[in-house]
TrEMBL record, chain A:
<dbReference type="Pfam" id="PF02288">
    <property type="entry name" value="Dehydratase_MU"/>
</dbReference>
<dbReference type="InterPro" id="IPR003208">
    <property type="entry name" value="Dehydtase/Dehydtase_re"/>
</dbReference>
<protein>
    <submittedName>
        <fullName>Propanediol/glycerol family dehydratase medium subunit</fullName>
    </submittedName>
</protein>
<dbReference type="InterPro" id="IPR010254">
    <property type="entry name" value="B12-dep_deHydtase_bsu"/>
</dbReference>
Automatic annotation (TrEMBL), chain B:
<dbReference type="Pfam" id="PF02286">
    <property type="entry name" value="Dehydratase_LU"/>
</dbReference>
<feature type="domain" description="Diol/glycerol dehydratase large subunit">
    <location>
        <begin position="15"/>
        <end position="562"/>
    </location>
</feature>
<dbReference type="InterPro" id="IPR003206">
    <property type="entry name" value="Diol/glycerol_deHydtase_lsu"/>
</dbReference>
<dbReference type="InterPro" id="IPR016176">
    <property type="entry name" value="Cbl-dep_enz_cat"/>
</dbReference>
<dbReference type="InterPro" id="IPR036999">
    <property type="entry name" value="Diol/glycerol_deHase_lsu_sf"/>
</dbReference>
<protein>
    <submittedName>
        <fullName>Propanediol/glycerol family dehydratase large subunit</fullName>
    </submittedName>
</protein>
Length: 199, 570
């Protein structure tokens, strides 16, 4: 495992999620819903390997848009279970396709008609997800939305991810669980990106 | 939010020494602070229950401060099946200090310790081992492990699921000394071919080696029942009801599965380990070791002969908290205290630092356990489909040297190159002949040649994967069994390999491998806690590395001859 993927420039994008009301079922057949976990861009600002959440979303959106598909972003508050988040996103998606993302970076592409514990593509090793992978995930989700059958994004494996990241992943998981608000429904969010100097 | 600067972003000048330290492999490992409220703590938590038991009319009505009405299903199972109700109140009355001293005192016999432990609750056992430092834990393990003779287990897998690689690395592993060999798959459908390869290769390397294939539970059981594998290990149990339920299981369903193996005379053990519950976010605020002790008692209550523990695939969690590796050593000891065979971890990639890798091994290697590693990688770690082990083929010579330095038996030995090449070639040839006989996909002479000299899966010609998967499917559809393998080996001129495999299969009729800690010697004598009981009673007793075995372990790749210092002995 190489060193964390930290920001390389001094200018860093920060992201604020603005709640614009309850998330509704989409009607456009050409949309992908990105479903975020409770602590995403909230108490956490970056993934386990320090990919800024702003960058995660920027890449997912770019990947979706380059396929000519539109994206809608929602945030889920009553669970931090990736399968549940992703499946909820899929059920609200006009195309039935969603990308679910946990704060630490773990990501899943889901489809409305699949069982909740099933998925189209799962990226379980959060430490191995960097900006280019998020872009490919966005792109693949969009292609599913268009009714295509893309080659799955190549999964990576790193046997030394365990000693480096396993305990931190557990800690992040516990922290994210603490932000769960039982009974609070999913909300649609707008993204405010700001360029700030990280000096 | 993070309060410290991420690595590499500091603009402050650092010393040249700090730069060197920053670059040391140990700083690639992850470490976290404890969070006891959530169970992110090794074994010292204020949130673990106080020991206590109350019996009424032959039923445990209160366990560690919890009345029966509040029992979860782990408590219910443990209270009903894992604690000796007749002696529990007397055993619980013995002070924890006294029990800890009994464990380390060579004048107190293993049986006397077992008798007391049988009546203890999970919180009491935790209270006892919390008094012990790592040296005391090792001293306890030296006396309490069930089998007198320590042994070791290997992983033999392939990143390409290449059955020939699995066969030859199994053969080499067997000749190097592993008593058990385990495989698993990248592509699960490959399993029947790879399990056959492991079985054949193992019996070429050394008759009597036991093999298993870690799979989804139903398939694993079927391969065992057919005699394609000899034992099973990956039957996972957990310390909280919520994690159990997440896996659609209960202590009773796991026990039922265990009895399915026993019904066919097949050796099996459960698997558990510290850190799994907190990893899954459901530790219910209890320490990792407390929850692992509940697993160990559940295993005892289920009646299985043994347990694979020592954190296993969650080792990154206890490895990251203070005292975590002490807790891992303690969990192995508790399994032995409960009279279970213990296959003691050291089987997953643990650290970037070789010093840490070895330090993590010492509490098992030095006292000896039933299986020091529950999976030393007998293939390069890149080929290890269990996601990498704490030790792999690159470490063979270091391991042998450590055994020789400390005069401890870690189950392996140095083997001369020509002997290794011979068993590798023969394993490949036996599998080639057997596949041809059973009308399975061809193994070419070029593959046999490559297998003889290979290190990793990259050194083999590529297989026709689709043809292999079809062949694998046909093994299941045709209902091939271990006896078909024996017949095929006999018919193709591999009489000794056929004989070895048949003798292993016959063990399930006698049931000798159901005894605690059973392995087979090269003479096919079952060695278990029944006929090779640990009789450690202080200096000069118990298992000693001496005689023929010590002469064997004195050999290394390069040792200068005393009689002719211009040459080496080997």
């Amino acid at each position: 495992m190489s060193s964390p993927t930290g920001p390389t420039s001094t200018a860093e994008r920060t992201l604020r999620l603005r709640d614009i009301g309850p998330a509704r079922r989409g009607t456009r057949p050409d949309e992908v819903v990105i479903a975020l976990s409770p602590a995403f861009a909230g108490i956490f600002s970056k993934t386990i390997v320090e990919v800024p959440h702003a960058e995660v979303l920027r890449q997912l959106l770019a990947g979706i848009e380059e396929q000519g598909v539109t994206a809608r972003v929602i945030q889920v508050h009553d669970t931090a279970d990736l399968a549940a988040i992703s499946h909820l996103g899929a059920r609200l998606s006009g195309s039935g396709i969603s990308v679910g993302v946990l704060s630490r970076g773990t990501t899943m592409i889901h489809q409305r008609d699949l069982a909740r514990l099933s998925n189209l593509e799962l990226f379980p090793q959060s430490p191995l997800l960097d900006a280019p992978v998020f872009r490919q995930i966005g792109s693949n989700a969009a292609r599913y939305a268009k009714g295509e059958s893309p080659e799955p994004v190549p999964t990576r494996n790193d046997q030394m991810a365990r000693p480096r990241w396993q305990a931190k992943a557990a800690l992040l998981h516990l922290k994210e669980f603490e932000t769960i608000e039982a009974g609070r429904g999913p909300v649609e969010v707008e993204l405010d990106f700001e360029l700030s100097s990280a000096g | 939010m993070t309060t410290t600067q991420p690595a590499g972003q500091s603009r402050k000048r650092t010393s040249l020494r700090t730069d060197i330290l920053e670059d040391r492999p140990v700083n690639l490992d992850g470490f976290v602070e404890e969070w006891p409220e959530k169970g992110l703590v090794a074994m010292e938590s204020a949130f673990d229950p106080e020991p206590g038991v109350r019996v009424e009319d032959g039923v445990i009505v209160e366990l560690d401060g919890k009345p029966r009405a509040d029992f979860d299903f782990m408590d219910t199972f443990i209270a009903a099946h894992a604690i000796d109700i007749a002696t529990t109140e007397a055993s619980m009355a013995v002070s924890s200090d006294e029990i800890a001293r009994m464990i380390i005192d060579p004048r107190t016999s293993r049986d006397e310790v077992l008798a007391v432990i049988r009546g203890l609750t999970p919180a009491k056992i935790l209270d006892v081992v919390r008094l012990m430092n790592v040296v005391e834990i090792m001293q306890g393990m030296q006396k309490m492990r069930a089998r007198r003779t320590p042994a070791n287990q290997a992983h033999s897998t392939s990143a390409r699921d290449n059955p020939i690689q699995v066969a030859v690395d199994a053969a080499e592993g067997a000749v190097r000394g592993f008593a058990e060999l385990e495989t698993t798959l990248g592509v699960v459908r490959y399993a029947p071919l790879v399990a056959i390869a492991l079985q054949v290769g193992g019996q070429v390397g050394r008759g009597g080696v036991l093999t298993q294939c870690a799979l989804e539970e139903a398939t694993e059981l079927e391969l065992g029942m057919r005699g394609i594998t000899a034992y099973a290990e990956t039957i996972s149990i957990y310390g909280t009801e919520s994690v159990f339920v997440d896996g659609d299981d209960t202590p009773w369903s796991k026990t039922f599965l265990a009895s399915a193996y026993a019904s066919r005379g097949i050796k099996m053990r459960f698997t558990s380990g510290t850190g799994s519950e907190v990893q899954m976010g459901n530790a219910e605020g209890k320490s990792m070791l407390y929850l692992e002790i509940r697993c160990i008692l559940m295993a005892r209550g289920a009646g299985v002969q043994g347990l694979q523990n020592g954190s296993i695939s969650c080792i990154g969690v206890p490895g990251a908290v203070p005292g975590g590796i002490r807790a891992v050593a303690a969990e192995n000891l508790v399994a032995s205290l409960c009279d279970l065979e213990v296959a003691s971890g050291n089987d997953q990639s643990f650290s970037h630092s070789s010093m840490r890798r070895v330090a993590r091994l010492m509490p098992q290697l030095l006292p000896g356990t039933d299986f020091v590693c529950s999976g030393y990688s007998a293939v390069p770690n890149a080929d290890n489909m269990f996601a990498g082990s704490n030790f792999d083929t690159d470490d063979y010579d270091d391991w042998n040297t450590i055994q020789r330095d400390l005069q401890v038996d870690g189950g392996l030995r140095h083997v001369r190159e020509d002997d290794i090449l011979a068993v590798r070639r023969r394993a490949a040839e036996a599998l080639q002949a057997l596949f041809r006989h059973l009308d399975l996909p061809t193994i070419t002479d070029a593959e046999v040649e490559a297998a003889t000299y290979a290190n990793s899966s990259n050194d083999y010609p590529l297989r026709d994967v689709l043809a292999d998967l079809k062949g694998a499917q046909s093994v299941m559809e045709r209902g091939l069994t271990g006896v078909d393998l024996v017949k095929g080996l006999e018919a193709t001129g591999f009489h000794d390999v056929a004989e070895n495999l048949l003798t292993v299969l016959r063990q399930r009729v006698s049931g000798d491998l159901l005894q605690t800690s059973a392995i087979l010697t090269p003479e096919f004598v079952p060695l278990s806690a029944i006929n090779d009981a640990n009789d450690y009673a202080g200096p000069g007793t118990g298992y000693r590395l001496q005689g023929e075995r010590w002469e064997e372990l004195k050999k290394l790749r390069h040792v200068t001859s005393a009689s002719n210092p211009e040459t080496e002995v080997s």
